[in-house]
Design brief:
Number of helices: 2
Oligomer: single chain
Largest sheet: 3 strands, antiparallel
Strand content: 15-25%
Radius of gyration: 38 Å
Strand order of the largest sheet: 1-4-5
Distance between the termini: 118 Å
Number of strands: 6
Length: about 160
């Protein structure tokens, strides 16, 4: 450094060192944008999953409603078959059962089982062999993918005293 009487001390030029702040700022900004991008990507992927799941549930619900409307018709066909013993009705029943099976609809198996209020509706208590055991099924119950579409109407046995 040199100094004159009239002047303030003057620093001689030295090699200018670039400060680390702009680089740190850029790195922080890059990390912030990367974090925002990853968060947005995760949100989008979650939205896709929820949308797919919702579509699947909506289609299951629509199938459930249509099948529930068809069950009384199916009951009438079964009763007609019992009365008539017609081969044409046997074929129609076989086809109906195949369609129901392909749509994951199954009958609730109730005869001889313990009464289950989730899948059955008791319409009468009768004398029977076991306590709370289904003695007779008056109307078949159906479920779709483990969801009960229609509970089975049953007669439940009770022990004599």
């Amino acid at each position: 450094m040199t100094q004159t009487d009239d002047q303030l001390p003057v620093e001689e030029p030295t090699e200018v060192m670039e400060s680390q702040e702009p680089e740190d700022t850029q790195t922080a900004e890059i990390e912030a944008w990367k974090s925002k991008y990853l968060r947005a990507l995760a949100d989008y992927q979650n939205l896709e999953k929820r949308t797919t799941l919702r579509r699947h549930e909506d289609s299951r619900m629509a199938a459930r409603q249509v099948i529930a409307k068809l069950l009384p018709v199916i009951d009438v066909i079964y009763k007609a078959h019992e009365a008539l013993q017609d081969k044409g009705l046997s074929l129609a029943i076989k086809q109906i059962e195949d369609v129901l099976k392909s749509e994951h609809v199954e009958k609730v198996d109730v005869l001889g089982k313990a009464f289950d209020p989730e899948t059955m509706e008791c319409i009468e208590l009768t004398d029977g062999e076991g306590h709370d055991t289904v003695v007779e099924e008056t109307q078949a119950g159906y479920r779709l993918h483990d969801i009960v579409i229609r509970p089975a109407q049953v007669k439940v046995g009770k022990k004599k005293k």
